[in-house]
Design brief:
CATH architecture of the largest domain: 3-Layer(aba) Sandwich
Number of helices: 14
CATH topology of the largest domain: D-Maltodextrin-Binding Protein, domain 2
Shape: globular
Distance between the termini: 99 Å
Oligomer: single chain
Bound molecules: (2S)-2-hydroxybutanedioic acid
Number of strands: 9
Order of helices and strands: HEHEHEHHEEHEHEHEHHEHHHH
CATH class of the largest domain: Alpha Beta
Largest sheet: 9 strands, mixed
Radius of gyration: 24 Å
Structural class: alpha/beta
Strand content: 15-25%
Number of domains: 2
Length: about 350
Amino acid sequence: MKLCRIVGLCMLLVTLVTGLIGCGGRARDAEQVDRDERIVIKFSHVVAENTPKGLAAQRFAQLVAQRTAGRVEVQVYPNSRLYKDGEEMDALLDGRIQMIAPATSKLSEWFPQWQLFDLPFLYSNEEEIHRLTDGPVGMSLMELLKSRNMLGLAMWDNGFKVMSGNRPLLEVEDFKGMRFRIMPSKVLAAQFQRLGAWTLALPFDQVYGALETGMVEGTENTPSNIYSKKFHEKQSHLTVSNHGYIGYAVITNREFWEGLPPDIRQILEDTMAEVTAWERDIADQQNIADLEAIRQAGTTEVHELSPEQREAWKAAMLPVWDQFSDVIGAGLLEAVESVMKLQEPSAYSNE
Ligand code: LMR
């Protein structure tokens, strides 16, 4: 073969290989910030994008890109796409990701005091729950995170939980013998045991399949989580019980955060505070809209509780407060009572 053909083939080969390498990385364009300066925050979460947490994560990413002129890139990974329940925390601790926003129930494996937010009938409106999350109770719970190289940045809302099942759930007796999917929280397990039901803690991305196969017959969650993941398609009944709360601790890796340039950290903290207020505003509306969408879907009969039925649920479930007073801490529970200015003595108080 003539030398010139060999040279030509070699040049072609070099061009191809170089091109492939170039495809492996993101194409660099001129105005992109120099890669060495770029700070990437991988934000992993388990819910759909069109949910309060999903929308807030996207908004945070957009505002941060604008306000740092591209110096910080927040990459949002929704729907358990990068890490799912049970994986997120480890990935955060070893620096594979830099931000997560787990439901507070999911912190209880490491910090059992966080089960405070799982207590049934804890609050009756968002203003009350914010008195807890934004006051001394929330701050002392956030302080606990630092012992495991985590830093709490904010508390985001989802909202009230409703009950769903493959039968009407109105009387306490209706729960007897049913299997419910729950988040990994002993308080939530105890709550259902008080109703005579069984529980199975499953990662969020396995709930639809578990409903479809009959592994579980019911769930508790917010309308936005139910609708966005189509759980209602597998649940013939839903009761607007508002018996509990789902909210999120937005958490970063403490070492990563404290290592950020101070000016960048300040922009991120200010933006997080702004997005938190925005997220809380939209969460309630999103759940109202999604509950209506479930009603309109025609798959699920939506029930309301009568005052008598609600009182019967409370009588069955409130003893869980006393049951976990040692685990959560008497001091925290006393703070809850004073913050909430509970009208009627809770199951916890000894009066
Ligand atoms: C669940 O697992 O049911 C929820 O915590 C999902 C979420 O993050 O809202």
